Task: inverse folding
């Protein structure tokens, strides 16, 4: 079973040289820590920076330089700042090759719900709806089940949607799954996790190929 | 000869704001917010305001200050966390909230300033954001029709500016400020540094002064950091 | 009767302190020469400058600094450069207070035709359609009649339109006229021109008030 | 680590351009045009091109060079004067021409790059530009629906740029270049000065490198002036 860093590490393997990547808040943010040195990848934060770097050294933080999670950050050489309209022009115009974000629920048709729980305080969708409606390549990073132990991989979402039919791949603490033809297709097992464990934790339709290799996350 | 927009300070900047008006306020989180204008709006006490701003501040800073005084009737935002008073007013029904995807919010402000009354975007299709909106397919992909936003006043904050209203922003403090400046009937810019006319390179200006009606030199910027994340010098 | 400079001089009287003004090619360009010193007015050229100044001194011309007529220009203190989308955002968004342009024909309902003569080479509308569709305040600067002596102020335009019902005022070599309620309303006569001269040269409906003062262009 | 877009020169920049493709070319008149790429396109000899460019150059410079070689089948522009060969081909029916209001052209390119498939604009309502287009009233004023433009290749010219594709333009040579860069599937930027990564202030960049796929250092810029208007030193 993977921890949050493990999930991030596995997702980092999906990233290709030359890609612009938008990482959501939470587990997705950790993905940046596992990109191989020398790989040409730039991180976009939708509040207005391309070429986002790591957190600043103590004392170097700048109130004017934050990411979409409102955390203080730094800028890499070649970075650029821009306004919010330009930022979402990049996203909507499909100039960002990969979006990684968290979810409360993912459905077997690729629907995602991650912004609203009826009856609870709604904070808003931020940029998530723009991101999922636009990106060609959306990976969801999340735990396979919620705190109550219920599957987050469902036949259909019960919560209000963030986007429809958009998620291509899900990486959880248990497995890597692709979404196609209305089902979750098991691709890899997390270390020490059996296909039966995964099947038991997946409420949606799960297609299990003959051979399900264990992840190699080094 | 350049048109002079300089006014004395936040009092002159906010003159004319009245109860019931729609205001836009730049900033993302607490980054790049018009601190001085917000302080003045609290003093002015206008009520029943509709505020268009990506966020709603925190309890004791940013738009939270207007919420505390119950000056806001409706918020139009993309994300409103980090604010207990906001939550209380929203749950009690005192405060109306219209949540909009962040990219649609940015584009709707730009459209408002650019004379584009409506445009199609894929964002929000199939969600409750699309309810009541026209849907149309382009290249086989469904999009929804979103309309322009404008405001009686837009309050923005820049790093540097000149008397012609030309603005330069710093780093990610730019965010929504340029589009909101475009969309305000009266746009009030506060700047950390008001420089002499001609001191800004015309190539480096982010927002042309034509979109700004009033500009003043702000003072005592707190520039509060919402999430101070750092690496300790030992680990780096 | 006014010459081209006279028309420009009369139009310059329409300009108010604090206005952004877009001047078309030809007579409109001359208006800039008659703005009183010290008046706070900025000229926009739709190819991407606000704060346009006079032509450069010999030897100072810069291929990268031109106006919409492709003429070399200079920038005033406080000038700013921008891209074409931002430029027309200003125009369409009604941030420019006055547009002055030439016309082949103007109709009594405010229609304007100035870009195309069927059967002749069509060069294009450039920014004219955006300007006339957007500006709140459009003044046409032109000769009252064409080279063949025919009136350019018509019951309706015969040429393909540039914009509909948009012209508010026309300043010609003979007169100043406002357009409202489907008619040209005579406001002023050019020096030495009689109301009868104007009526004879105006094919469209002309409303003549009791008192038509002669222009004072100093 | 920043993504490197640098290629050797115009040959590498234009690699892949084929007959029948749609190209965007930045510039207004002869100001800010991608001179080196145009020269290379003439060498390459691809035919039946659709060229989206505000203007069509003059007889012996800019897009006029491609017209001379009869490489262009269709021009999409706002103004095409100043070119006798253009006129000849257009009147003879060899060349198809689609004339678009300048602001609509700029906004349609931006929309193409920004994932906005269509938008409403007042420009052209009631004229032949509106023929066949949807009309809708907003605030009592009629608007027409215009669609996004994209291109197989966009060729743009900047003043300075870095290996990440970040661009800075000079004065009014900016014009259509940023929006066309946004709208190209493959965007090729040529620059007067290719500076080291990190040499551009991230605040001063006009076009983020994400919109650029290839960048090269141009050479031998002629930067021809179309209308040299000056004041003599005596009269000034």
Result:
């Amino acid at each position: 079973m993977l921890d949050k860093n493990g999930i991030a590490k596995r997702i980092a393997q999906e990233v290709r040289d030359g890609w612009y990547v938008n990482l959501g808040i939470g587990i997705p943010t950790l993905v940046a820590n596992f990109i191989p040195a020398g790989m040409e990848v730039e991180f976009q934060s939708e509040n207005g920076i391309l070429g986002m770097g790591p957190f600043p050294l103590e004392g170097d933080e700048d109130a004017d330089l934050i990411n979409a999670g409102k955390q203080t950050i730094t800028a890499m050489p070649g970075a650029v700042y821009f306004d919010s309209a330009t930022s979402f022009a990049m996203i909507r115009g499909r100039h960002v090759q990969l979006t990684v974000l968290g979810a409360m629920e993912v459905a077997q048709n690729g629907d995602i719900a991650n912004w609203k729980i009826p009856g609870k305080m709604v904070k808003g969708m931020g940029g998530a709806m723009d991101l999922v409606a636009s990106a060609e390549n959306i990976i969801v990073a999340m735990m396979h089940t919620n705190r109550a132990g219920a599957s987050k991989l469902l036949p259909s979402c019960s919560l209000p949607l963030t986007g429809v039919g958009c998620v291509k791949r899900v990486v959880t603490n248990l497995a890597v799954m692709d979404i196609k033809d209305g089902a979750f297709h098991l691709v890899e097992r997390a270390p020490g996790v059996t296909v039966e464990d995964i099947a038991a934790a997946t409420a949606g339709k799960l297609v299990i190929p003959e051979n399900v290799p264990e992840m190699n996350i080094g | 000869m350049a048109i002079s927009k300089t006014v004395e300070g936040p009092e002159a900047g906010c003159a004319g704001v009245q109860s019931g008006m729609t205001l836009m306020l730049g900033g993302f989180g607490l980054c790049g917010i018009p601190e001085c204008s917000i302080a003045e709006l609290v003093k002015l006490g206008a009520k029943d305001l509709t505020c268009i701003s990506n966020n709603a501040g925190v309890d004791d800073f940013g738009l939270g200050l207007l919420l505390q005084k119950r000056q806001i009737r409706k918020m139009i935002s993309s994300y409103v966390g980090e604010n207990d008073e906001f939550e209380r007013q929203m749950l009690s029904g005192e405060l109306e909230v219209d949540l909009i995807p962040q990219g649609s919010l940015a584009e709707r402000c730009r459209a408002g300033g650019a004379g584009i009354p409506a445009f199609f975007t894929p964002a929000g299709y199939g969600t409750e954001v699309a309810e009541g909106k026209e849907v149309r397919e382009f290249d086989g992909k469904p999009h929804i029709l979103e309309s322009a936003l404008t405001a009686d006043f837009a309050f923005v904050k820049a790093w540097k500016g000149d008397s012609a209203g030309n603005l330069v922003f710093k780093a990610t403090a730019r965010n929504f400020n340029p589009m909101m400046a475009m969309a305000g009937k009266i746009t009030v810019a506060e700047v950390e540094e008001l420089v002499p006319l001609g001191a800004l390179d015309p190539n480096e200006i982010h927002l042309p002064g034509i979109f700004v009606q009033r500009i003043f030199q702000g003072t005592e910027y707190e520039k509060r950091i919402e999430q101070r994340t750092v690496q300790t010098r030992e680990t780096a």
Remarks:
- The first strand of chain B starts at residue 22 and ends at 25.
- Chain B touches chain A through 59 residues (CB under 8 Å).
- Chain B is about 20% helix and 25% strand.
